[in-house]
Amino acid sequence: MVARIDRLQGSVPGARVFEVVVHPDSPAANQEVRSLSLPPDSIFVAVRRHERTLIPRGDTVLQPGDRVIALTDRERLSELQKVFSKPSRQE
C-alpha cells in the first residue's frame, strides 16, 4: 500500500504543505511521532483527529484515520511517503 499524499494550498517558497491519512496498515499507525524516521527538512504541523486539531509532539501517537499535515521540501516527498506506506512484500 502506497500512502496518498495531497498537496495543500498556501505552500511556502522552497517547501510544500501536504496532508496524508494514516492508514491502519501504515507503519506510522499507533506509533509515537518521535519514533518515526522523518526525512531531513520535514516536520508535522498538525494532526486532525475526528473534530479536533492537535499540535503534534514527540509523544503524540498517530492513530489510523488521523490526517497529518506535514511541511517538507518537495524533493523529500517520496521519503515522507515511505513513512506512511506499508512496505512491499518480498517473495
Describe this structure in words.
The protein is mostly beta strands and 91 residues long. It is 9% helix and 33% strand. A hairpin with an 8-residue loop joins strand 1 (5-7) and strand 2. The protein is globular and about 30 Å long.
What's the total helix number?
Answer: 1
Would you count the extended β strands for me? Answer: 7
Order of helices and strands: EEEEEEEH
CATH topology: Alpha-Beta Plaits
Q: Biggest β-sheet, characterized?
A: 5 strands, antiparallel
Structural class: mainly beta
Shape descriptor: globular
The CATH class, by name, is Alpha Beta
The whole-angstrom Rg is 13 Å
What is the mean pLDDT? Answer: 85
The helix content is: under 10%
CATH superfamily: Regulator of K+ conductance, C-terminal domain
The structural domain count equals 1
pLDDT < 50 runs, ≥5 residues: none
Q: In angstroms, what separates the terminal alpha carbons?
A: 16 Å
The amount of beta strand, in percent, is: 25-35%
**Strand neighbour order, sheet with most strands:** 1-2-7-4-5
Explain briefly what this protein structure is.
The protein is mainly beta. It has one helix at residues 77-84, and strands at 5-7, 16-21, 31-32, 42-49, 52-54, 61-62, 67-72.
Topology:
Blueprint: E1 5-7, E2 16-21, E3 31-32, E4 42-49, E5 52-54, E6 61-62, E7 67-72, H1 77-84
Antiparallel strand pairs: 1-2, 2-7, 3-6, 4-5, 4-7
Task: List key phrases describing it.
single chain; 91 residues; mainly beta; Alpha-Beta Plaits; five-stranded antiparallel sheet; two-stranded antiparallel sheet; 33% strand
